[in-house]
Amino acid sequence: MEQECFHVKKVLNNNVIFSKNQEGQDIILTGLGLGFQKRKGDPVEAEKIERIFILKEEATGNRLSELLKQIPIDYFYLADQIKQHAEQKLSKELNQNIYVTLCDHMYYAVERFKQGLLFQNQLMWEIKRFYPKEYQIALEAIKLMNSTLNVKLPEDEASFVALHIINAELNGHEIQSVIDMTRLIKGICSIVQYEFKIDFDENSLNYTRFILHLKFFSQRLMMNEPPAEEASFLYPQVQENMPEAFQCSRKIALYIQKSYNYTITKSEQVYLTIHIERLLSESRKL
């Protein structure tokens, strides 16, 4: 089988170049001396290629190209390791924009560490609570960063890394959307707990289902996506048969309207009511 021939699109340094494959996708080629004395349009010496990274979106390639002019390539290799590990653990593909956002974050996190500047994430507890898988992956990423870059970043830094992983799960939207989603979930949980004076059993199936529902709900709200499937026909039934949970869902609807200028549909209120009723029933059995 004939080996694909690549040509230099841009030389990043002696060991890294940007090129395109036969499908027209931007790619990053790495290898010792691969870019040495190379110019745009030159053929790439295939025997020197050690790794090929395919960038599916041109915009990601452009942003990454600019970023890697400013930071060591080691951060890209590290971001790729973390991305692959996260995809394996989560059983899903992450948006490649994580190469850009995570490289940028890691570089400045290390620079801040060297200057003795440590930031606290005000949503650390909520991220750990609502996104436990992503947080655990982020903890492992911090260990990898510390050993690879010879630093001692604290575990608190994991909450920031987790945000980038969650963001990449949501197709690389602005990270502020993930922060807003987390705050919305926190706000809804607080209303339920305050209304019924209960503590959630975070190991229960009902709690897991509730949080999963809130994740999808908050994503739809923040991304302006259409509501879930129709369930408004159940509205009179839940109103009559689940009065306490229904009243709580109305308070949540008012909170969302006031805080996010979003009117939840009857279907969404039905689903909220059902989940709240399950949590309430579970707490009363304890």
TrEMBL record:
Transmembrane segments: none annotated. InterPro entries: BglG_antiterminators, CAT_RNA-bd_dom, CAT_RNA-bd_dom_sf, PRD, PRD_sf. GO terms for molecular function: RNA binding. GO terms for biological process: regulation of DNA-templated transcription. Keywords: Repeat. Residues 70-175, 176-286 form the PRD domain. PANTHER family: CRYPTIC BETA-GLUCOSIDE BGL OPERON ANTITERMINATOR (PTHR30185:SF15). NCBIfam families: LicT (NF046042). This is PRD domain protein. It comes from Anaerostipes caccae (strain DSM 14662 / CCUG 47493 / JCM 13470 / NCIMB 13811 / L1-92).
